[in-house]
Amino acid sequence: MADVLYEKEGAVALITLNRPDSLNAVNERLGQELLKALKEALRDGEVRAVVLTGAGRAFCAGEDLKSQEARFKEGTASLGDVLRRRYNPAIQLIAAMEKPVVAAVNGVAAGAGASLALACDLRVASEDARMVQAFVQAGLVPDSGATFFLTHMAGLSRAMAWAMTGLPVEAKELFELGIYHRLVPKEKVLEEALSWARELSQGPYSLGLIKRAVRRAAEKSLAFTLEYEAQLQEAAGKSPDHAEGMAAFREKRPPRFTGKGGL
User: Fold this and answer.
1) 107: closest CA among 128, 77, 133?
2) Which of 35, 116, 164, 244 falls between 20 and 30 A from 82, CA-CA?
3) In which band, very low, low, confident or very high, does the pLDDT at 70 lie, cut at 50, 70 and 90?
4) Which homologous superfamily does the CATH classification assign to the domain defined by 4-201?
5) What is the C-alpha to C-alpha distance for residues 64 and 43, in angstroms, rounded to an integer?
């Protein structure tokens, strides 16, 4: 059985972390399969939105610590190398692909598992989907982009408190802070996420540009952002989807977008 399942439902790719007995903890094999699945979704021109979820009762418990025990005993463990090889490429790919990625957070998201959820563009979460950054309790540092995402999403003060205490954050608080966008009963999480992704998959070419602009704006100055928006608007304005959107407005009908750029 694969550690990551990849399915297509029309224009939506569903990627499922599939180690439910270990709360979908990430080992070497799952990390490699996740990256492969993300690359497949990126390359597939028919896929216009992606949903990432976990099998069973958890989204992802983060690093599979059992997989590291032997390395520590042998004195060969390099946590930095594990991050650079196993996690960072997947986080960067989720953030960079110009397709909406929706996390269906069906249960606890811990450690790097929380980072996978935070890297997604939108999050639908179960009412019991706590987020945990317990690195400090193991004498470690939050990783896989956790400090970046939490600081940008929740602010420096909350990010510092969560990182330094390692205490779990309840789903309700995350929803009130806007980190979880929709909060639903556990049995409805995947259904809601897929429904949202289907809506997004019918969106215009500019959706990918919007994702690019917002993520870049989180890192850059106002002056940079103003010019970058102008460049992206130029590209969006030349797309068939812009022409279709304007025609639909004039004709008072729903637009039929293709999601493709260029003339």
Assistant:
1) 128
2) 164
3) low
4) 2-enoyl-CoA Hydratase; Chain A, domain 1 (3.90.226.10)
5) 29
